[in-house]
From TrEMBL:
UniProt source species: Lacinutrix venerupis
Taxonomy of the source species: Bacteria, Pseudomonadati, Bacteroidota, Flavobacteriia, Flavobacteriales
Name of this chain's protein: TIGR01777 family protein
Residue runs in coiled coils: none
PANTHER family: EPIMERASE FAMILY PROTEIN SDR39U1 (PTHR11092:SF0), SUGAR NUCLEOTIDE EPIMERASE RELATED (PTHR11092)
InterPro entries: DUF1731, Epimerase_deHydtase, NAD(P)-bd_dom_sf, SDR39U1
């Protein structure tokens, strides 16, 4: 089997590549940097420039499945320009892939696209499943809704469409965990706001595992990429501090302070989404990091 991955050199993409190679799945990948093009038997790079609608169509040769991860980081200050980059990077790349498949011979049977739990509205009480119809009215909600709609266009090419709505990714190689752990390490850790907001987390290993599971079992539709036991911001902060054997003595950080520091993107820290993993579990995916304690044991 061979997959084509966009965003293969990022945090999630690198772990998916690693797990693909363990299962003897060959990887083609698209990159905007010619310096990052490699040419190994099981790992081949191809150039593309989505803003100019350029793509090396050789990337499709003998490929069965596309794993689509690429998109500008949401963890960079949301200036007007960067907000546009967040949207464009997702929509332009998806549209270019669609046009390329439509106009060139290929053997693609499935596309598995990243999405995000930012789709779900902010709530302290709801427990969200993939069937939720209400979409968050935040900027992230708008981005995810538009991105998923463009991904759905692959259905017109008779391709199985799958989407993984990613939660808070825990890894010591990047993502949320180093940022959460850093202030705790220096003795200035504290919960955000009330600390009651839900954080639906997932260990990087399991997130990549879900992508591979959706691929190997040809699962169609939306799947939440979250672990079975979400925690509140306060619980997560306390658990990290306990593992690091560091005290938490500072008061919670008020929302208005983080709004001053981070601007609009402060909502990432304060929005609450308690999200269910039951659907992927129903299809017999077995989590390696089922609860927070096991995940933190691996990371700390």
């Amino acid at each position: 089997m061979k997959v084509l991955i966009t965003g293969a050199t990022g945090l999630i993409g690198s772990e998916i590549v690693k797990q693909c190679h363990k299962k003897n799945i060959d990887v083609n990948y698209l990159t905007t940097s010619k310096d990052k093009i490699e040419n190994k038997d099981n790992f081949k790079g191809f150039y593309w420039n989505p803003s100019q609608s350029k793509i090396d169509v050789n990337c499709l040769k003998n490929v069965d499945v596309i794993i689509h991860l690429v998109g500008a980081s949401i963890s960079k200050r949301w200036t007007k320009e960067h907000k546009q980059a967040i949207i464009n990077s997702r929509l332009e790349t998806t549209a270019l892939l669609h046009e390329t498949l439509k106009n060139n011979h290929n053997t693609i049977t499935q596309i598995i696209s990243a999405s995000a739990i930012g789709y779900y509205p902010d709530s302290l009480t709801k427990y969200y499943t993939e069937d939720e119809k209400e979409v968050s009215n935040s900027f992230l909600g708008k981005v995810v809704q538009e991105w998923e709609q463009v991904v759905d266009s692959f259905k017109t090419l008779n391709i199985i469409v799958s989407k993984v709505r990613i939660g808070v990714v825990l890894s010591n190689k990047g993502g949320a965990f180093p940022e959460l752990a850093k202030p705790i390490k220096y003795g200035v850790g504290a919960a955000m706001g009330t600390g009651k907001q839900w954080m639906s987390w997932i260990h990087l290993h399991d997130l990549a595992g879900i992508f591979l599971y959706v691929l190997e079992n040809e699962l169609e539709g939306v799947y939440n990429g979250v672990a079975p036991n979400p925690v509140t911001n306060k619980m997560l902060t306390k658990a990290i501090a306990k593992k690091m054997k560091m005290p938490l003595f500072l008061p919670n950080i008020p929302k208005f302070v983080m709004k001053i520091i981070l601007g609009e993107m402060h909502i990432i820290l304060f929005e609450s989404q308690r999200v269910s993993s039951k659907k992927i579990e129903k299809f017999n995916y077995k989590f390696e990091y089922f609860n927070l304690d096991s995940a933190l044991n691996d990371l700390v």
